[in-house]
Write a structure and sequence with these properties.
homodimer; alpha/beta; 9-stranded mixed beta sheet; 4-stranded antiparallel beta sheet
C-alpha cells in the first residue's frame, strides 16, 4: 500500500477557479489538471483567506487567518514570531523546498530585536517563510525593484539574453516588426508573443527547477512548494500559447448595469481603479482573456510534464499533490479588474487534492462542496506526514478526513471567512478612511455571502437565488435577521483567533489538573 | 526646568485600590503613597487587562491587550515575537532594570525555532520580558518549584538563615511557642509574625535592591521596574506589621445574600473554589484582612524610604513615578477570595502617576475619573522619554496629555476592556467547558459594566445605581438594548486588535502614495 512520504504543493498565481475545464470552462481545455481531479478530490468552494497575493500566501504558509498572522497586504513583512509550514513539517523528516514565488518579506525590525542572523539556518528559514529557497522567484520585476541576481534573471543571462531587465524586456515583452519593445505592462500588447521561446519562460523554468529538486532528493522525502507566477499579469505569453485562443473562446462578462447604480461605496471605489476602468471595456477584456487562457494552458502542459516526471521516478505513489491558486482574477466581471473584493471570481480558487493512500481510493474523482479554506492545507500536510497538528496555532482543519471518508461527510465548517485590508489602495483614499480603517471581512455560508466593512454598510448576496452575485441585499431592511446572524458569526470568529500560541489545549488540561495542588485557599 | 530622564515603575501584587488611604480606606493609613498622589495624578478608574498576575503583567509590559499578546494566564509563555517595554525604551538611552516579580515564562519552542540563545544579549532580554533582571524574584516558592538559587533565597542564605526552603519556612511562616512552623500557606496563621525581622523581608529586600540599582546608575538614565510581591498571599508579615491592625479596623464585606441566588454560572462556580468558601466566612476575612493591611502598610513605609533616597540623590526632579498593582483581591467581597472575575475589587487597581515636568504643575494632587488601562503605561513611558510611540503594536494611549493638560481633558476612551481565560480553574471543569471555551471579556463604560462569557449569558451592572455591583442585570430582558450595545462595543474592539505589527500606519500612507506608480491597469 502507498503512504504519503512527499508533498507536492503546486500554486498558481491569480488563477480563478472557472478557468479550468475541470471547473467548467467551455473553451479552455486543461486535461493535465483535470487528470489530477480524476485521481483526487476537487473542491468547488475553496476560499482564500484574502484575495490578494501576500496575505493569501501567508495564510497558506502559516495555516492562520490574516488577522492572526498580521501580514495583511502585499509586502507587509510576516512577523518573525509566526510559525510556518516548514517549522511544522521539517521535524517530520522531509526537506522543505521552494521553487517560485512566496511574496514573503522579512521582518527586519523583528530580526534586529532578537539579534537574528539571516545567515544562520534558523534565520534563513524565518526570512524565507519556512522554506529552503531552492529557486525563489517572486516575478514582477519592474525597473524600480529589479534584482539582477534573482534566480530566473540569472537563468536568462546564462542562456545568452542581454539587457538591463531580462524578465521585463524578454520574458514579459513582445516586439514589433522593427524589433522595438512592446511591453507586457501594457495590456494592448497582450496578444503579442513574448520575446523568448516557451522553453525559457518562467513557467517552464519553474517546472524545470521543481524536477531538479525532486531528482536531487532521490529517495529522501520532501515537501516541495512549486509556485508558478502565472497567469498573473503582465498578460503576455510565449508562442504558441499567445494565439491558441481568441475572442471567440471568451465567456461573456458577468456584470449588470444595475450593479453600477447604487453600488456599495467600496465596490464603487474599486470600479474607479484604472484596471477596472480598462476591464470594463469589451476590447480590453477580449484582448486579455485569450492570453490569460494561453498562460493557463501553458501551466497545464507543464503540470503534464511534471506528472510524467513523477511517474517515471515512482513518486506518484507516495506523494500528496495539491493544485490551487492564491486568488482569482475579475477579468472584467462585475466591472472590475484584478482581485481583492469578495466576489467568487476573486476569492474562490481551484483546489484539487490527490491523496495517494489506499484509504483515499473511494473518493478519487469525486467533488466536494464543503466549505474549505486555504488554511486547511498546513494541517492536511502535517497529518498526512504523520505529525501532530499544532492546533493552538493552526486555525485550519486537515482535509484528510474528507479525502478518506468521502465528500459526503458532514459539513465541518458552517462558514468560510476571508479578509481584506485595502489601506494601500486608492479606494481607501477616495473614501477618506485612515490606514487602519480600510478593513473588510467576508463570511460565506452554504447560502449567503456577507461582507462586513468597517465604517460602511455591509454587503449581502443570496448565493442560492443569485449565484452570480449581481444583487446586493446589504441595505435591504427585509434581510436584517440574516445580516444580524452573519455579523454574529463574524463576532464569534473574531473571538476565536488563536493567540495563546505558546500553550496547547492539552497543556491546559494537564496543568489545570494540578489546580487542587495550589497552596491557595487553605485554612 | 525638570524633564523626564528616568522612570520608576512601582508595582504591587494583588493590592486592591480601596486599601490605601488616598483611595478612601478609613483605617489603613498610607501617607507615603498618598504623598505621591499629592505630587501627581490619581486615577480612580484604572483597569488591568486581566485580573490575574501573568496576563495582567504581560499587558503592562507589552502595552497590548491579552488577546493580542496571547499570554492569557499565569505561566503561559509570552511569545518570543512580542515586543516589550525594554525594546521600546532601551534605544532611547536608559538602562532598563527589574527588581522583583514579572511572572514571565520563556517561550522555549519559539526560542528553539529561531535558534535563539538565552545567553545572548537579545536572548536574555527576550527571556526576561525585555528587562535586565537586576534582582528578579517572582515570590511564591512552594517546595515543588523551589529554586535555591533565586535572588531572595541567596540573600536569606547570606544572612545566615538555614533550611531547605528559606522563602517558605522563614519569610512566609511563623512559629509557635515550641518553635514549630506555622506556615503562611494556612490562612489561620495570618496573624502570626513572620519568622524573619522586617528588614530581611521580601518587601525590604526589594526596596534595598531598587536603591542599589539607582545608586549604581549615578547620573546615567534608567527605567526601573520595582515589582513588590506583596500584599499577595501567603498573608503573613513580619513584626510590627502583623498586629498593627485588628478586626476592628476591617471594613464590612461587600456582599448580599441575593447575589448567591440565581448567580451567573461562572460567578457561582468561582464561589465554590476553596479560597472563596473560606473568605465567605467572617472569621477568615477578619483574620486575613488585618495582615493584608499590615503588608500594605509595610510597602507604604518602604515607598517612603525609596522616596527619601530618590530625593537625596536628586532624582525626584527628573524621574517619572508610577505606583500601581497587577490586580486586586476580593478579600471576601461578593463571597469570593483571590481575584480573576471583574468586580471592581479584582479588576480595578490603584494608579498614581507623578510627572516631574513643569508642564504637569497644574495637575499635581488632582484626581482623574478617566477610563485608564494598564496598557497605557508603555506609551506613557515612551513619550515621556522623548520617543515615538509604536502605535502599530501598542494598543494603549499615553497618559502624558492628561497629566499635562488636566484631569478635565475630554474623555478619550469610551470603554475599558479586560479579559479572562479561566481554563486552568476548577470553575471551567465544573461548567463542562473545553480549554479554549473558558473566556470572558469585560467592557466598562462610565455607567455600565458588561461581561461577555463564551457559551453563557452575559452579566451587566449599572455602576451609577448599583456601584457595589450587587445586582446582575445580564438576564434582564428590559436591558436588551444596553446588552446589545455593549456586545457591539466588544465586537468592534475585537476587530481592532493590532496584528499588522510589522508596518506602521505612516508606512501605509507612504507606500500607498506609490499606488499610482504600479504598472497595473495600463493599456
Amino acid at each position: 500500500m502507498a503512504g504519503v512520504r512527499n508533498v507536492l504543493f503546486v500554486m498558481t498565481d491569480q488563477l480563478r477557479a472557472d478557468y479550468l475545464s475541470a471547473y467548467g470552462h467551455p473553451a479552455l481545455k486543461t486535461p493535465n489538471i483535470d487528470a489530477l481531479a480524476a485521481r483526487g478530490m476537487r473542491f468547488t468552494r475553496a476560499y482564500v483567506q484574502s484575495p490578494v497575493c501576500g496575505p493569501a500566501r501567508m495564510s497558506y504558509y502559516t495555516g492562520r487567518y490574516v488577522t492572526s498572522h498580521g501580514a495583511t497586504w502585499n509586502n507587509i513583512p510576516l512577523s518573525v514570531g509566526e510559525w510556518t509550514l516548514g517549522d511544522y513539517v521539517r521535524p517530520l523528516g522531509p526537506r522543505v523546498g521552494l521553487v517560485g514565488k512566496t511574496h514573503m518579506r522579512i521582518d527586519r525590525d523583528g530580526f534586529s530585536r532578537l539579534g537574528l542572523d539571516q545567515g544562520s539556518t534558523a534565520g534563513r528559514y524565518a526570512a524565507e517563510c519556512g522554506f529552503e529557497p531552492f529557486a525563489r522567484d517572486d516575478g514582477l520585476h519592474p525597473d524600480f525593484i529589479y534584482d539582477p541576481d534573482a534566480s530566473y534573471e540569472r537563468y536568462l543571462r546564462e542562456r545568452g539574453y542581454d539587457g538591463k531587465n531580462l524578465w521585463q524586456d524578454w520574458a514579459n515583452s513582445g516586439s514589433d516588426e522593427d524589433g522595438a519593445l512592446l511591453s507586457g505592462w501594457y495590456m494592448r500588447n497582450a496578444r503579442e508573443p513574448a520575446r523568448i521561446p516557451e522553453e525559457h519562460s518562467e513557467t517552464a523554468w519553474t517546472t524545470d527547477q521543481a524536477m531538479e529538486f525532486i531528482r536531487l532528493q532521490g529517495d529522501q522525502p520532501w515537501v516541495l512548494h512549486v509556485s508558478y507566477i502565472k497567469p498573473h499579469w503582465p498578460y503576455i505569453v510565449s508562442a504558441p500559447y499567445h494565439d491558441m485562443y481568441g475572442p471567440e473562446d471568451c465567456v461573456p462578462a458577468i456584470r449588470s448595469e444595475a450593479e453600477r447604480e447604487d453600488a456599495h461605496p467600496v465596490f464603487k471605489a474599486f470600479m474607479q481603479h484604472p484596471e477596472s476602468q480598462l476591464f470594463a471595456k469589451e476590447e480590453v477584456r477580449l484582448t486579455v482573456a485569450p492570453t490569460y487562457m494561453g498562460l493557463i494552458k501553458q501551466i497545464d502542459d507543464h503540470i503534464g510534464r511534471l506528472m510524467q516526471f513523477l511517474e517515471a521516478k515512482g513518486r506518484l505513489d507516495d506523494t500528496l499533490i495539491v493544485f490551487t491558486s492564491d486568488h482569482g482574477d475579475y477579468m472584467g466581471d462585475h466591472w472590475l479588474g484584478e482581485k481583492e473584493l469578495f466576489h467568487e471570481q476573486s476569492v474562490r480558487v481551484p483546489l484539487i487534492v490527490v491523496d495517494p493512500s489506499d484509504e483515499a481510493q473511494a473518493t478519487r474523482g469525486t467533488v466536494s462542496d464543503t466549505l474549505v479554506e486555504s488554511i486547511d492545507l498546513v494541517p492536511t500536510f502535517v497529518e498526512a506526514l504523520g505529525g501532530q497538528v499544532a492546533d493552538h496555532r493552526l486555525e485550519g482543519r486537515s482535509l484528510l478526513g474528507l479525502l478518506r471518508r468521502g465528500a459526503h461527510a458532514p459539513a465541518w465548517r458552517e462558514h468560510a471567512v476571508s479578509e481584506l485590508d485595502y489601506s494601500f489602495r486608492q479606494a481607501r483614499r477616495d473614501l477618506g478612511l485612515g490606514p487602519s480603517e480600510a478593513r473588510a471581512y467576508m463570511v460565506a455560508t452554504d447560502r449567503w455571502k456577507y461582507v462586513f466593512y468597517e465604517r460602511l454598510r455591509p454587503q449581502l448576496f443570496d448565493l442560492l437565488n443569485d449565484p452570480q452575485e449581481l444583487v446586493d441585499l446589504g441595505a435591504d431592511l427585509g434581510h436584517q435577521p440574516t445580516l444580524r446572524d452573519m455579523a454574529d458569526r463574524l463576532f464569534e470568529w473574531s473571538r476565536q483567533r488563536k493567540t495563546r500560541v505558546t500553550t496547547t489545549d492539552a497543556d491546559v488540561e494537564r496543568l489545570s489538573s494540578f489546580a487542587g495542588k495550589r497552596l491557595i485557599g487553605l485554612w
